[in-house]
């Protein structure tokens, strides 16, 4: 009976004395404190990197903006940084391309993604849903360079032949590639939102005589509104930040955006030209400034995302 | 006991790793110091590191030279970093590398800063079209007009009635700089698409029957067709004898007044020697010496 009351060292399987017990407690306390410090440091590493990147981008991005002038930089329509006599450093074509490209990808990707989410969450038999979900997860795991490669080999020639163009690399090709790339995040986030809609809402609607379709679109979707909005914002974030895939299909000439023309995005300008811009030149500094502009875009999108998610929680 | 032992072992392992790390960096330092020590040692066996930086077009040539130089001087490590001609020249002037690599003639402002170019090889810039394209021969003027967007249809130069898709490289690319300067279309090109590598240009010309592009002679394979320029075919011989119009030098750039390390000097001499002509032509360029 006595041995049952005594604490048993599980490791050595021997009873331990009271003295040993307090010593262990002290050691445990020290280990606890140590681990706490380790966790805190790890937590702050993320903050440190965000701060580091922000500060670095601002420091390296401002000189070119100051030299060119904020108005000329943001609203200038000519991006010819390497022009020997009259370099043009206006990024309006790049900004508009990024905005149009993202908007196009959203316009194409959100309806498809949302309907897929409704299908997965409400309509599909569980086995089919599992297969589709696996496919969607796989889609999310494909490296962006592979999207670009397939776009370059399949999509670009198809667009060229179908629309009878000189070359198929265009805003359209980029939009299609981006739309496919943002599908996974839109599907999984809006599916979660739809799954979180209380079953009673739908049952009440069905009991009142609404058809299933009416229930999904009039009851479930509005109830999951903010989650779906979060999915859209997430999609915007992915689309605007993507570089590799569209570098391979967009043609990369800084034209004003037009569906069938070769275009250059903010991201592809940085990715494509960084290797060639000599260190310290205005061209390179301007690329940093583009990074800063992109960073501000992403920041705004993140703030928007947080607002939507917060609203979701408050409900 | 077991636990303590394993902790101890782990500590030992980490410690030995750290030690190993220190040792190799000491060795590296030793190797660098070795350069100066070896200057007295005239036996011909050199040790050290040669850092080269610059033109991406020279990657193949550099890889070949590096490989064969390792047989001549096994103690010397040659590093190549493909950052672009501009960066390479910048690097050698700033002292961040021993030898800069440029696939174009030096600019005036670069020679003013003390850059000296040594021609190790020549490279023809081939004008490539899709194999389906019927056009065989273009004059330099026609090429200029096509790239400036004055000639927009293949039928104007004897081809099919198809709009021309003009493919080029990103601003700052050595090939683009060389092509535009030689053809005389600097900053005047109306590109349909721009690509960030020679491979992209070739690949896209190969898949698009309306396309015209430019690329190093060494990169042209069977997938695309190099047109004659002014009735001169683009081959190694025509580049070497100077009859092919669109060509550029591959330079190794040093800084005037800065003494090269023994290892770097040996590498430069080796690259400039006539012995390496086979190596350079095997790498797709045309030997200059």
Summarize the structure.
Chain A contains 13 helices and two strands; from the N terminus they run αααββαααααααααα.
Topology summary:
The complex is a heterodimer of chains A (315) and B (289).
Chain A: H1 2-5, H2 18-68, H3 70-75, E1 79-80, E2 88-89, H4 92-123, H5 126-141, H6 144-163, H7 171-195, H8 199-207, H9 212-223, H10 225-241, H11 244-247, H12 266-273, H13 282-314
Antiparallel strand pairs in A: 1-2
Chain B: H1 2-38, E1 48-54, H2 59-72, E2 76-82, H3 85-94, E3 99-102, H4 108-112, E4 115-129, E5 137-138, H5 140-148, E6 165-169, H6 174-183, E7 193-195, H7 198-207, E8 211-216, E9 225-226, E10 228-229, H8 236-240, E11 247-255, H9 262-272, H10 277-282, E12 286-287
Parallel strand pairs in B: 1-2, 1-3, 5-10, 6-7, 6-8
Antiparallel strand pairs in B: 3-11, 4-8, 4-9, 4-11, 4-12
Structure explained in plain terms:
Chain A has 315 residues and is an all-alpha fold. Chain A has two domains: 17-64; 93-314, MetI-like (MetI-like fold, Orthogonal Bundle), CATH 1.10.3720.10. Chain A is built from 13 helices and two strands. In chain A, strands 1-2 form a two-stranded antiparallel sheet. In chain A, helix 4 crosses helix 10. The longest helix of chain A has 51 residues, at 18-68. Chain A starts with a helix and ends with a helix. With 289 residues, chain B is α/β, with parallel strands linked by helices. Chain B has three domains: 1-43; 49-122 and 248-287, 3-Layer(aba) Sandwich (D-Maltodextrin-Binding Protein, domain 2); 125-238, D-Maltodextrin-Binding Protein, domain 2 (3-Layer(aba) Sandwich), CATH 3.40.190. Chain B contains ten helices and twelve strands. Chain B has helices at residues 2-38, 59-72, 85-94, 108-112, 140-148, 174-183, 198-207, 236-240, 262-272, 277-282, and strands at 48-54, 76-82, 99-102, 115-129, 137-138, 165-169, 193-195, 211-216, 225-226, 228-229, 247-255, 286-287. In chain B, helix 2 links the parallel strand 1 (48-54) and strand 2 (76-82). Chain B starts with a helix and ends with a strand. The model of chain B is unreliable at 21-43 (pLDDT under 50). At the A-B interface, helix 6 and helix 12 of A face helix 3, strand 7 and helix 7 of B.
């Amino acid at each position: 009976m006595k041995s049952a009351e005594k604490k048993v060292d599980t490791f050595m399987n021997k009873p331990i004395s009271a003295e040993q017990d307090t010593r262990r407690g002290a050691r445990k306390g020290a280990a606890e404190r140590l681990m706490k410090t380790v966790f805190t440091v790890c937590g702050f590493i993320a903050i440190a990197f965000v701060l580091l990147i922000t500060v670095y981008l601002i420091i390296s991005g401002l000189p070119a903006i100051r030299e060119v002038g904020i108005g000329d930089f943001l609203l200038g329509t000519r991006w010819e940084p390497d022009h020997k006599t009259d370099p043009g450093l206006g990024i309006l074509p790049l900004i508009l391309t990024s905005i149009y490209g993202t908007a196009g990808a959203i316009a194409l990707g959100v309806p498809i993604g949302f309907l897929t989410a409704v299908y997965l969450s409400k309509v599909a038999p569980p086995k089919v849903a599992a297969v589709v979900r696996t496919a969607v997860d796989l889609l999310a795991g494909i490296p962006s360079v592979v999207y670009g490669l397939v776009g370059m080999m399949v999509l670009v020639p198809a667009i060229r032949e179908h629309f009878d163009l000189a070359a198929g690399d265009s805003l359209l090709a980029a939009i299609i590639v981006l739309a496919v790339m943002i599908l996974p995040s839109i599907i999984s986030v809006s599916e979660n939102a739809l799954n979180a809609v209380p079953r009673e809402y739908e049952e009440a609607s069905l009991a009142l005589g609404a058809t299933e379709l009416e229930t999904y679109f009039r009851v479930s979707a509005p109830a999951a509104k903010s989650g779906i909005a979060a999915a859209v914002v997430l999609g915007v974030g992915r689309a605007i930040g993507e570089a590799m895939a569209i570098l391979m299909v967009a043609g990369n000439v800084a034209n004003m955006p037009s569906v069938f023309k070769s275009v250059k995005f903010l991201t592809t300008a940085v990715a494509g030209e960084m290797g060639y811009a000599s260190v310290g030149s205005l061209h390179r500094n301007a690329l940093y400034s583009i990074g800063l502009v992109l960073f501000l875009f992403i920041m705004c999108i993140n703030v928007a995302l947080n607002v939507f998610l917060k609203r979701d929680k408050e409900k | 006991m077991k636990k303590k032992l394993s902790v101890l072992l782990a500590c030992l392992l980490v410690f030995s790793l750290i030690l190993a790390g220190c040792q190799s960096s000491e060795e590296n330092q030793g190797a660098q110091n070795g350069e100066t020590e070896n200057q007295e040692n005239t036996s011909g066996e050199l040790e050290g590191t040669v850092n080269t930086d610059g033109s991406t077009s020279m990657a193949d040539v550099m890889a070949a030279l590096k490989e064969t130089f390792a047989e001549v001087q096994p103690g010397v490590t040659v590093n190549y970093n493909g950052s672009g001609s501009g960066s390479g020249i910048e690097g050698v002037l700033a002292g961040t590398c021993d030898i800069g690599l440029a696939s174009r003639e030096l600019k005036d402002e670069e020679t003013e800063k003390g850059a000296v170019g040594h021609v190790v090889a020549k490279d023809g810039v081939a004008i490539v079209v899709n194999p389906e394209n019927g056009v065989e021969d273009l004059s330099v003027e026609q090429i200029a007009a096509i790239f400036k967007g004055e000639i927009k249809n293949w039928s104007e130069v004897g081809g099919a009635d198809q709009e021309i898709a003009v493919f080029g490289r990103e601003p700052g690319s050595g090939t683009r700089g060389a092509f535009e300067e030689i053809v005389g279309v600097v900053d005047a090109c109306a590109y349909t698409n721009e690509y960030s590598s020679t491979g992209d240009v070739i690949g896209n010309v190969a898949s698009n029957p309306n396309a015209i592009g430019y690329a190093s002679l060494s990169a042209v394979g069977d997938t695309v067709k190099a047109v004659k320029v002014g009735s001169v075919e683009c081959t190694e011989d025509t580049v070497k004898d100077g009859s092919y119009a669109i060509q550029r030098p591959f330079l190794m750039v040093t800084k005037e007044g800065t003494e090269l390390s023994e290892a770097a000097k040996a590498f430069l001499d080796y690259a400039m020697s006539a012995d390496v002509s086979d190596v350079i032509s095997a790498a797709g360029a045309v030997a200059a010496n």
